[in-house]
Each structure stands twice: as structure tokens, then as C-alpha cells.
Amino acid sequence: MPTRASLTRATLPSLIGGLLLLAVATWFAYGGVRASLASRALVEHTLEVQVAIGELRSAVQRAESAQRGQLLTGEDRYGEPYRDARQSAQAAHDRLRLLTVDNPKQQAALDRLQPLMTAKFAEMDRTLELEQAGKADEALAIVRTDNGLRQLIEIRDILNGMRATEDELLRQRSGMATVDTHKAFVATAIAALGILVLGGAAVVAVARSQRALRDTNAGLEEEVERRTADLREANEEVQRFAYIVSHDLRSPLVNVMGFASELDASRQDLAIALRDAPDPMAAKVREIDGQIAESIAFIRAATTKMDRLINAILRLSREGRRAFGNEKIDMNQLIDAQLRAVEHQVKETDASIQVSGLPPIFGDRLALEQVFGNLIDNAIKYRDPTRKLSIEIAGRAQGDRVVYEVRDTGRGIAPEDRERVFELFRRAGAQTQPGEGIGLAHVRAMVRRMEGSIDLQSEPGAGTTFIVDLPRQAGRVAGRAE
Amino acid sequence: MNPVSIVLIEDDDGHATLIERNIRRAGVSNQIHRFADATSGLAHLDAQCAAHAGGCLLLLDLNLPDMSGIDVLRKVKSDPNHRATPVIVLTTTDDQTEIQKCYELGCNVYITKPVEYERFANAIRQLGLFLSIIQVPAQS
After folding, report:
1. How far is CA A223 from the centre of its chain?
2. Which residues touch A265 (CB under 8 Å, ≥6 apart)?
3. A420 touches chain B (CB under 8 A)
4. For B77-114, what is each residue's pLDDT tens digit?
5. Which of A207, A448, B60, B110 minimizes the number of CB atoms within 10 Å of its CB?
6. Nearest residue, CB atoms, B113 vs list A254, A259, A303
7. Terminal alpha carbon distance of chain A
8. Which residue range(s) make up the domain with A433?
9. Same domain, A207 and A336
10. Quick check: helix, strand or coil at residue A470?
């Protein structure tokens, strides 16, 4: 059993450790996924920037194409595309400013780009205005300066540079995103593996602990059964012992008693044979005969007493083995019946007896008759001859228990004897009454078997109260004990 | 006089003596064979009682050194040769279950040996009276 218990004990920390590891792996997986998502966003951002760069470049080119078209053809239909391209270029530029606000390099590029763009568009605006005003030659002269071309090339270079920067960023960010995705994947895979392993371990641990629990339970049940069997056996052993002792002690007593009687018979025969002996001898014979008779009387008295004690042990042993009944008993009727049995003595002693409403009980009739019969008997036997005896029998229910009291105005029991009176073969006070000291021992044994208790309160010279406290379901308890 | 032979199986010599004395006092003069153990008592039953003209009557104590008196009773009552032999059980116990068991096994009379000698002597004397009128079947 201890190895199983420690196995189970060892399982818990390892499970907790496993859970912690799993939490860490999950955290990494989460972080990886987040990083990966962030990288993706950056990549998208870069792509957006690149789109804007492309748009700007194409818008500037479109604007120039429209300008050239108009200057070459002198037709006004290029005005609209030029304004569109000019607007697009400005919009793309503004978007780039915003998109690359976190990138100083790109911002610097834009700072260089802005005056170029302004100058380029200013020149284009001017040539178009001159052409509109009919001064196409002047406009063409401006174009021939090649300032516009240089500006355009410069703009392209700057945009190409920006593009290259973004390409580099894209490469970096894509790589990062891939790494982050990879990391997230690995962490997730580890976490998943951890879940599988932990789940498996948990299943194994639960199965094992359940098995251990089942084994322990079975072991406990076995243990309880074994202990109960041991107790039952010990109890049976005691009962058997009491039975054998009383039985085997009786056998020699039959001999002692029998041969004492035989001896007595022989003595009488001898006395008759020597009846006519001459005087000095007859006197001696009478003297010896008297001594023999006295000895025999002692042997008989002792044997009779021993027989009574053995019978008492035998009776207790039998009572202990008897299965208790469980019937509803009207205690008023039961006590009445017990009182009728002692009616003669009650009249003789001029005692007064009062029984007030007693609660009923479920139990063994014979046991209860013996308990209260004994208590009533004692109350009458141990009365104070100088006072009138009155006996009061009362009872009350207390929850699932019932308490009965037998109160007398007898001679009482001295404090030092209050425990002794319940012991087997022990008696208290003046030995004015015949008895072996069995009654109260028997009473207590029976009350205890019903899982009750018996107590006494007494004042020498005033009286004694016996208090019997029993479960209301006394029979069920005692029946189970059997 | 009825020529029944009495077989007394009793390990306590004192009890045997008291029983025999009281049987004699009752005026019964049949032969009494005393055995202190069950084995020799049963051997006698096997060897002598079949040949005995008037049959045997068994006085049996329940506490014997070599086997329980209950077993002796069971043996006798399950043996076709002895089944008809009257068995009187004499014992110190008055345990009701034991008494009932003896009767169930076919014991004819059950007598408790009381410590009180007068009762004991009386029981044995009455047994003597019973012995003087009982007809025991001769064995085949």
C-alpha cells in the first residue's frame, strides 16, 4: 500500500510541473503567433509603401507625358489627364509621408523629393500656361533647357532609392515573418505535444490512482472484515471459555457434593451401628459424629455456593450469546408485570410504589424484564427497616433515547461502593440479604449490550436512584451486535 | 429380573461410583460394565451386546476424553446392530441446545447431573425404576 500511495503522491507534482511547462510552451506559441502577425502587418505596410512609391512615379511620368502631348499637339485634351496625374502625384506623396512617418531615411528622401516635385510641377505648370497663352515657343524653350528632364531623373532616382530601401525592408520583414511563423509553429507543435503527453500522463495517473484507491478500499474493507471477525472470534472464545469453565467446574462439584452426602449417609449408618456402645465410648462417638456432621455441613454450604456462582457465570454466558429481539414494548405494562411478581413482598413490607407514564421502547422483552426486575427486587431487598419504603419509577424520552429511573427510599449505597455494586460477585453494605453479587453485573451487561448506560445516585440513609439510559431503538442496536 | 446388561461410559470415576451406588440402591441388580473412555465402551458394545441374551442399555456421559459423547451417540444410533439399544445420556450441562441435539440423534432419556445430591440420587433411582420395567430388544 505505501508504494502506491507514494506513487500517487509523486504523480501530483509531476502533473503540476507538466502543466507549468505546457503553460510556458503555450505562451511561446502565443508570442510566436503574435510576432508573426506583427511581421505580416509590417510586410503589408512595406508593400503599401511600395505601391505608393510606384503610384507617385507613374503619376509624375503621366503628368510629364500629358505636358509633352499638349506642347507637341497644341490640343487642349491633355489638360484633364495632366491635372489628374498632378493630383495623384500629390496624393501619393502625402500618403508616403504618412506611411513612412516611422522611417527617418524615407522621410529624408521625401524631404529631398518635395522641392524637386514642386519645382518640376511648377515648371510644367508654367510651360502649359505659356502654351495656353499662345506662347508655345517660350514653353518649348523652357523644355529645351532640360531642367525638367534632370528634375524628373532626380525624382526617379530618389523614388528608386526609396523603393530599394523598401525592398530591403520587405526582405528583412518577410524573413522575420517567416522566422516568427516558424517559431509560432514550433512552439504550437511543442505545446500540442505537451498536451498530448500531459493528457496521457493524466489519464495514466488517474487510472493508477483509481486503481490504488480501489485497492486501498478493498484493503480497508478486508481489514474491517478481518477485525470484525477477530472481535467476533474473541467474543465467541470468551463465551466458550465461560461455558467450558462452568461446565467443567461443575463436574468435580457433583463429586464433592455426592460424596459429602455419601459420607453423611455412612456417618448415620455408623451412628446407628454404634448406638448401643458402652457409655464412655458412646459419648466419644457422639462428639466425633457431631464434628463430622459440622464438617459435612461446611462442605455442602461451600459447594452450594460454588454451584450458584458457576450457574451465574453460565447464565451470563448464555445471556451474552442470546440473540436480542426487537419489538415495541409498552414499558408501563412490563413494569406492572414485574411488580405483580413481587406483590407478596411489597404487601409484607408495606411499601408504596408509584409508576408514572413511561415512554415505550423497541427492544428485547426478556432483557428489559431482567433489568427492571432486578432493580425493583433490589429496591425491596435493600430497604431501610426503620423507614417506610417507597419506590418511584419514572421515565422520559430524550431525542432518540429514553431514560428510565427507579428511585427508592432504601438504605442507600456508600460513595466508595457505587462502582463496586456493578461488578460481578461484589456486594455492598451490610450482608443482610442472600445473594451472590450477580444481579447488577448482569443488569449492566444487558444495558451495555443495548448500547445504553446505567448510573446511580445515592445517599446512604436516604435512598438510591438507578438511571437507565437506552437508545429508543435498543433492539436494533443489540440485534446488530449479535 | 430382566437380564439387561448396563454399559456405563463415564470418564469421571466419582460420577460412575455415585451412579452405580444409586442404581443399586434403587434395587437394580443388573450387571454394570464401566468404561472410562468411548473407544473401549463401543468395543464392548460391539463384542458383547450382540451375544447378550437380554441386550444392552447404554448410560453415556457427554464429556469423554477420546471423543465427544454426541459422536458416540451418533455412532450407536446409526449402527444397525445397536440402533435399538436404549441410550440414556447423563451430563453436567443443562444447555438446551445440547439436550435437543441428543434427542434429535435418538437418545432415549437425558438426565442432568445436578450438583445438588438429593436431586441427583433421585434421578438415578428413578432411572433404576425405569430400568426394572424396560424391555430391551435382544439383538439379532
Report:
1. 21
2. none
3. no
4. 998 888 888 899 988 877 788 889 999 998 888 888 87
5. A207
6. A254
7. 32
8. 327-481
9. no
10. strand
Place of cell 407514564: A357
Residue at B123 is within a domain: yes
- Please give the pLDDT value at position A480: 44
User: Mean pLDDT throughout B44-62?
Assistant: 79
Give the per-residue pLDDT at B52.
55
Burial (CB count within 10 angstroms: exposed 0-12, middle 13-18, buried 19+), residue A381: middle
Specify whether A150 is located in the same domain as A11. yes
Residues A189 and A170 in one domain: yes
pLDDT at A481: 41
B37 domain residue, yes or no: yes
User: Which ipTM was obtained for this model?
Assistant: 0.80
CA distance A403 to A474: 12
The reply to whether B140 falls in a domain is no
CATH of the domain at A24: 1.20.120.1730
Average pLDDT (A23-29) is 81
Q: Is residue B138 part of a domain?
A: no
For residues A268-292, average pLDDT: 84
* Cα–Cα distance measured from residue A369 to residue A474, given in angstroms and rounded to the nearest whole number: 14
CA B12 to chain A, closest CA, distance in angstroms equals 8
What is the chain B residue with the closest CA to A255?
B14
Residues of chain B contacting A257 with CB distance shorter than 8 Å: 115-117, 120
Do residue A254 and residue B121 have CB atoms under 8 angstroms apart? Answer: no
Residue A230 falls within a domain, yes or no? no
> Which chain B positions have a beta carbon within 8 Å of A255's beta carbon?
12, 14-15, 18
Contacts of A386 (CB under 8 A, 6+ apart): none
Q: What does the pLDDT average to over B7-31?
A: 88
A331 and A456 housed in the same domain:
yes
Does residue A171 share a domain with residue A61?
Answer: yes
Cα gap B137→B122, rounded to integer Å: 26
Most confident of A17-31, A133-147, A166-180, A452-466: A452-466
Q: At what angle do helices A439-449 and A365-381 cross, to 10 degrees?
A: 150
The mean pLDDT value for A439-445 works out to 88
